[in-house]
Amino acid sequence: MINSIQIDIQKKLHSNGLCTIRDLSISTSKGEFVAIVGPSGAGKTTLLNIISGLDEQIDGQVLANDTLPLAQLEHNRSFVFQEPRLMPWLTVRKNIELVLSSEQNQQGAVQKLLGEVGLQGFEHVYPGQLSGGMQRRVGLARAFIVEPELLLLDEPFQSLDEPTANDLRALLLRLTKKQKPTVFFVTHQLREAVALADRVIFVSARPASVILDYPVELNRPRQIDGDEVTQVCNGLMKKYPDLLSGKS
Amino acid sequence: MQTQGPSAEVGLKPSVQSHKALRAGSFLLIFILWQVAALVVDNRVLPAPIAVVKRLFIDLASGELLSNLTVTLIRVAFSFFFAMLLGTAIGLVMGSKRRLDVLLDGLLMLGLNVPALVTIILCYIWFGLTEVAAVVAVAVNKIPMVVVNMREGARAIDSQLMEVARVYRISRSLTFRSVYMPQLSPYLLASMRNGLALIWKIVLVVELLGRSDGVGFQLSVFFQFFDIEGILSYTLAFVLVIYMIEWLLLRPLERSLSGWRQVG
To answer: Does B215 have pLDDT greater than 50?
Structure first.
């Protein structure tokens, strides 16, 4: 079981020699929703790839519970990518069942989750027949069907219109509240981060390192376009005018 | 959200029907041209279609056509199977391992360009006038083409989807079946279709050169007797078999593998 995660990266060199992350440490406790905000190209996606174990070529380590490398600890993890990355040749239901091992695969659970994410009646439809918003619902269902302890999201609601994005944000919060995974949510939108997260970590432009670790103390539920969120954002921008361009 | 309901399928129907009419029309046209040509030239050089169909029934009744056709079909099936299996395996490895690709590329170029006749003759000399030699000779001609096609397929594999499989720890066999192979199915189908066409042709040459049964052997006998009606009757039988394979095997396979493309 993951009770806490400690990320400590001295250096991450890209294959082309570019240094994308330098001296970055973040630690989180179980069930925390962490948003990571930084300018485009800062190495945020690389960071998620490292946490997920997709990228192992680093100087540094990702530990679980202060002891074991996270990769060696048995845990369910999910990754929601920038593009939905569904298998176009599998129906909605098959796409979700794909990530379940055979003993996990219970018809009831898949059906129930499909209802929760608003995909009832779309079980036998192919992803290509769905709108972008609906495809992302499938992506979320795929992420939550394994009941992850660790959930990574890489700008999942980018390129959606605001009302659709807001529906999906609300859906994400509903599901995380229920399953309580530890969440890393990468975005470049300050407002989105403040509305969703328990903690917002701002990273610098490349090479990425932490420039501000900000706990969001607003009560939930929060309105993404509400006054409270606006106040927090404005306050941050006043205090650190260069925050979003990655300068401390 | 856009969903395609039954209305879209209904919308397809008229074009499908007009395609069928076109197809039938093209067959009819070939027969008419053949008939006209047969009227113009000497009947011994080009028999009329009716005569050839009549001959086909006679050959069928004698049983000789069927036995020759069966022998040839078995050779085609074996060569096809081995060529697809080996060619796919080699192609996938070459497409995903850069060093092996470089190592084998020269050999591949050689395989693609050595004339079929050369491999056939060499196989007969090295392995004797045997069934194995015949099948090997055909397969060797086809393998390089499968390799080229499947290598292209392996290079086009979407690494983003493979990452999904890794993140969610999908088992190797399931990844292969549900993530990897579906991306290759268009390449596989193309290989199968080209493969069948090529293998048909080469098997007949192989039979002509070193076998004493099969369609190729029988055609050489007809050639010696200047029996054009026999040649055309066998050709017609052959064409019918090809259409049957296309409609009963390849088309249904294609539909089941790429059904998701059509509804999209």
So the answer is: yes
Q: d(Cα A189, Cα A229) in Å, to the nearest integer?
A: 12
d(CA B112, CA B106): 10
Domains in chain A with CATH codes? 1-75+150-248 (3.40.50.300), 79-148 (no CATH)
Is the complex ipTM more than 0.90?
no
Interface test with A, best of B1, B163, B181 (most A CBs within 10 A): B1
For B106, B248, B256, the CA distances from B251, given in Å and listed in that order, are 35, 7, 9
Domain B71-258 in this protein, CATH class: mainly alpha
Sort out which chain B residues have CB atoms less than 8 A from A130's CB and list them: 1-3
Q: Where are the beta strands (DSSP E) in chain B?
A: none
Residues of chain B above pLDDT 70, percent:
93
End-to-end CA distance of chain A: 35
- Residues A188 and A40: their CA atoms lie apart, in Å, by 7
Name the more confident of A218 and B150. B150
Cα A221 to Cα A28, A195, A196, A218, A224, distances in angstroms: 22, 9, 9, 9, 10
Question: How many angstroms away from the CA of B264 is the closest CA of chain A?
Answer: 5
Q: How far is Cα B146 from Cα A72, in angstroms, rounded to an integer?
A: 41
| DSSP tag of B129 | S
For chain A, the three-class secondary structure string (H helix, E strand, C coil) is: CCCEEEEEEEEEECCCCCEEEEEEEEEEECCCEEEEECCCCCCHHHHHHHHHCCCCCCEEEEEECCCEEHHHCCCCEEEECCCCCCCCCCCHHHHHHHCCCCCCCCHHHHHHHHHHCCCCCCCCCCHHHCCHHHHHHHHHHHHHHCCCCEEEEECCCCCCCHHHHHHHHHHHHHHHHHHCCEEEEEECCHHHHHHHCCEEEEECCCCECEEEEEECCCCCCCCCCCHHHHHHHHHHHHHCCCHHHCCC
Question: A182-187 and A19-29: which strand pairing?
Answer: unpaired
Contact status of B50 with chain A (Cβ, < 8 Å): no
Residue A248 reports pLDDT greater than 80: no
pLDDT for B6 equals 40
Does position B15 have pLDDT exceeding 80, yes or no? no
Q: What is the mean pLDDT of chain B?
A: 88
More confident residue, A21 or B12: A21
Interface test with A, best of B168, B179, B185 (most A CBs within 10 A): B168
Return the ∠ at Cα A149 (arms to A144 and A152), rounded to 5°. Answer: 70
B159 interfaces chain A, CB cutoff of 8 Å: no
DSSP state for residue B177 in the 8-state scheme: I
